[in-house]
Design goal:
The chain is an alpha+beta fold. The protein folds into 2 domains: 12-41, no CATH class; 67-211, no CATH class. 29% of the residues lie in helices and 25% in strands. The chain has 6 helices and 8 strands, in the order H-H-E-E-H-H-E-H-H-E-E-E-E-E. It has helices spanning 12-22, 25-41, 88-95, 102-107, 125-131, 137-149; strands at residues 67-68, 74-75, 117-119, 156-159, 164-176, 179-190, 193-205, 208-211. The strands form 2 sheets. It has a 6-stranded mixed beta sheet with strand order 3-8-7-6-5-4. Helix 3 (88-95) packs across helix 6 (137-149). It is globular. It starts with 11 loop residues before the first helix and ends with a strand.
Length: 212
């Protein structure tokens, strides 16, 4: 800072004007101090929960061990859905010996259940005749969990021990009679034959999906 010689004959106004002229860094010093104060006062950006209008299915908070389903239900495991390949063996381990209609009651309802489930027919007539039976419990759980956690246009695939390979691709969400629904493409491959079916399924309970 440049020293200003005091002159008793100068007015106070003149001295203040002189100081502003001879101390050009003063205002910059003040501005820098104010900027530093603002920087300290503003907290760093943090990740927040998805807004209510955003699709949250498959989303997982950094410190939350659960995966958020399509309607907000929390699941303890994604069974590989988020990465695009359903882990049939892992789902089979939590399903145990449930068969048929018992799969829906054991798997798809309540916060304590382990996986979602699909109820209803999926495959077309051609592939259905080749398979010769309904989808097993692991197939239905993989299908239901894909509808719960996969994003739109994300493909999930798996194969079962009977030589059948499934791929499921949710396309869009919509509501039907007040229920949350999704349209999907599924491709079923068995014995060299492949069939693509476009279908729709709606939630009929916590984690339980039924085809339309």
């Amino acid at each position: 800072m440049t020293l200003v010689r005091y002159n008793p004959n100068e007015s106070a106004l003149t001295r203040r004007a002189c100081m502003r002229t001879t101390d050009p860094t003063g205002r910059w010093t003040t501005a820098l101090l104010l900027a530093a104060a603002v920087t300290i006062a503003v907290p760093p950006a943090t990740w927040a929960d998805p807004p209510p209008w955003a699709p949250a299915h498959g989303w997982r908070k950094k410190h939350d061990p659960f995966y958020v389903g399509y309607s907000g239900h929390k699941w303890p495991d994604d069974y590989g859905i988020v990465s695009g390949r359903c882990k049939r063996e892992a789902i089979g381990a939590v399903l145990g010996g449930a068969v048929g209609a018992a799969v829906g009651s054991q798997v798809g309802k309540g916060q304590g259940k382990a996986a979602a489930v699909l109820v209803g027919g999926v495959v077309g007539a051609v592939i259905g005749a080749k398979i010769g039976r309904e989808m097993d419990q692991e197939d239905r759980a993989c299908f239901g969990h894909a509808l719960e956690l996969a994003k739109d246009r994300q493909t999930v695939t798996w194969s079962n021990p009977h030589g059948v390979t499934y791929t499921v691709t949710p396309l869009r969400g919509f509501t039907h009679e007040g229920r949350q629904c999704r349209e999907y493409d599924t491709v079923v491959t068995v014995g060299g034959a492949k069939e693509k079916v476009r279908g729709k399924a709606c939630q009929v309970g916590e984690g339980e999906w039924r085809t339309l």
